[in-house]
Design brief:
four-stranded antiparallel beta sheet; 13 helices
């Protein structure tokens, strides 16, 4: 799948390596080692209409030190925060908003992968002067930026005709690709934000229904007998178009099979595969070409967009 969707994971590799060492010196009181927000915070940079303060720079500097990044840490932190401000502005214009639930889930998964609880991870971040809030906003921005770069690359690739894309692939020595085409249904056990305490009970209900599903013909009738359950027909989706948060769960499933349940901002969900078949056509080639534009080092499309944002930005250092 598209590596840009998970680019923030690469940024955190070095960070994850040092976390185990960081946990060892934690005291029970969790005394903060980094700068306190109570200290005076001065505006250091204005990016368009967004300010970057000395406190922001201190937290990002602490984050870079925790990653053991070489170089002038304060300068690197300032440059990164300028880029972050440009990215946030672009996300707002594009209407991309990453919900808190997705950020919290990524934060929890990161803690779990490093054999820590979210409380321990929060303590490490606070002691290092990074703070959990800064790290979560870093995660939110990386996820959102990955989505924006994807959308832009796909939009640009769609300006080429399908025949042009196939011809270009063949010129480069590639073969016309095949892909799996899925017809999918999405089953949502709705849990309002104010009632997230009901998630455990709803997971039980969703698993019970999931165990009875063997085809998409059954789901609507089953849902009608349950409280606050929605069934959505997602239609035909090529494997390369699968949403990033479901792609790994869906790939390889056959007709009548379901994914595991998953907590989302809407509640508890699972996907039913109505049909899965191999297809090969120009549309697959076009999608693959778009995807390959985001792969490799994963940075060309994002770097190009960021350079464009910098060129049109008002950046005032103080």
């Amino acid at each position: 799948m598209v590596q840009t969707r998970f680019r923030y994971r690469n940024r955190l590799m070095a960070f994850a390596i040092v976390l185990a060492a960081a946990v060892a010196p934690l005291g029970p009181a969790g005394t903060a080692l980094g700068p306190s927000p109570a200290l005076a915070s001065e505006i250091k940079v204005v990016v368009n209409d967004e300010v970057v303060t000395s406190y922001d720079i201190a937290r990002r500097s602490a984050f870079l030190r925790l990653q053991r990044r070489p170089g002038n840490v304060r300068q690197l932190a300032t440059d990164e925060l300028i880029d972050d401000a440009l990215k946030r502005s672009a996300l707002r214009r594009a209407g991309i908003n990453i919900p808190d639930s997705m950020v919290s889930s990524a934060f929890g998964n990161f803690a779990s992968r490093n054999n820590m609880s979210t409380g321990q991870l929060t303590q490490v971040l606070n002691q290092a002067g990074v703070t959990a809030d800064h790290f979560k906003e870093f995660i939110r921005l990386q996820i959102g930026w990955g989505q924006l770069v994807q959308l832009r690359a796909r939009s640009e690739s769609q300006m080429m005709s399908e025949q042009d894309v196939v011809a270009r692939m063949l010129e480069q020595g590639g073969q016309k690709p095949t892909s799996t085409e899925y017809i999918l249904q999405q089953v949502i056990f709705v849990v309002p934000e104010a009632n997230r305490g009901q998630l455990s009970a709803r997971r039980t209900e969703a698993n019970r229904m999931r165990g009875r599903v063997s085809s998409c013909d059954q789901t609507l009738a089953m849902a009608q007998n349950l409280r606050d359950v929605t069934v959505r027909d997602l239609g035909r989706i090529l494997e390369l178009q699968l949403p990033s948060n479901w792609a790994d769960d869906i790939k390889g499933l056959r007709a009548g099979q379901t994914t595991n349940i998953k907590d989302t901002e809407r509640g508890v969900e699972f996907i039913v595969v109505c049909r899965a078949r191999q297809v090969s056509d120009d549309r697959v080639a076009q999608l693959q070409f778009s995807t390959e534009a985001l792969e490799g080092d994963g940075g060309d499309a994002g770097a190009s967009l960021l350079a464009e944002l910098r060129e049109n930005a008002r950046i005032q250092r103080r």
